[in-house]
Amino acid sequence: MSNLVVCDHPLIQHKLTFIRDKDTKTKDFRELVDEVATLMAYEITRDMPLDTITVETPVATAQSKVLSGRMLGIVPILRAGLGMVDGILKLIPAAKVGHIGLSRDHETLQPTEYYMNLPTDATERLLIVVDPMLATGGSANAAIGSLKKRGCTQIKLMVLIASPEGVRAVQEAHPDVDIYAAAVDEKLNELGYIIPGLGDAGDRMFGTK
Ligand code: PRP
Ligand code: URA
């Protein structure tokens, strides 16, 4: 069973409150999502392996740590996942970025893949799939399934808000994929929206409604 890590740092929780607020305008929404993505990247990289190297300080020789060769990839689910990429790149500027385009049908709630573009060495990287919302889990499962079909084996999922249903769906379909969320909300409504959630993440990020 995969781990569910709820990133409950006070700064993340504070910013998430204003992301949820319906009166937060597009510009602020985008900035807040970017900031929370940076803070969550700090949590998601907590177990990255380190090597010890020797470094000369001005006064002595020190044995000190550097990140070992493990390479990262960020894979946003379009559209809304795009809003989390730059925030992660601030901490991990050497990461490569792949893109998966998925659109959820408003009635059936089933995702359709319309775009996929991965770094050529994606199979050698630890991939962080990012999307603000994990609702039914259909989009995240399709994205992870698509990556696995292309030979990717090391995958983590990072979302802002998850529903209990979405967490269960990913854990059942992909027990090897750890999930990082800033919050797990109460439930899904009959339209497949997370309650209380934040509304439509893509529309709020890009001002399309
Ligand atoms: C939203 C959201 C997720 C998906 C979550 O995207 O950003 O990708 O729905 O729902 P699920 O867990 O039930 O699959 P949407 O399909 O609305 O596309 P958009 O980002 O282009 O608005
Ligand atoms: N997609 C969203 O953008 N919001 C939800 O609450 C559910 C799916």
From TrEMBL:
Cofactor binding summary note: Binds 1 Mg(2+) ion per subunit. The magnesium is bound as Mg-PRPP.
Catalysed reaction equations from the record: UMP + diphosphate = 5-phospho-alpha-D-ribose 1-diphosphate + uracil
Residues engaged in binding 5-phospho-alpha-D-ribose 1-diphosphate: R79, R104, D131, P132, M133, L134, A135, T136, G137, G138, S139, D200
Any one Gene Ontology cellular component term annotated for this protein: cytoplasm
Stored SUPFAM superfamilies: PRTase-like (SSF53271)
Regulation: Allosterically activated by GTP.
Cofactors that this protein relies on: Mg(2+)
Residues that, per the record, bind uracil: I194, G199, D200, A201
Known function: Catalyzes the conversion of uracil and 5-phospho-alpha-D-ribose 1-diphosphate (PRPP) to UMP and diphosphate.
Family the UniProt entry places it in: Belongs to the UPRTase family.
HAMAP family according to UniProt: Upp_B
Protein name: Uracil phosphoribosyltransferase
Organism: Paenibacillus albicereus
Gene behind the chain: upp
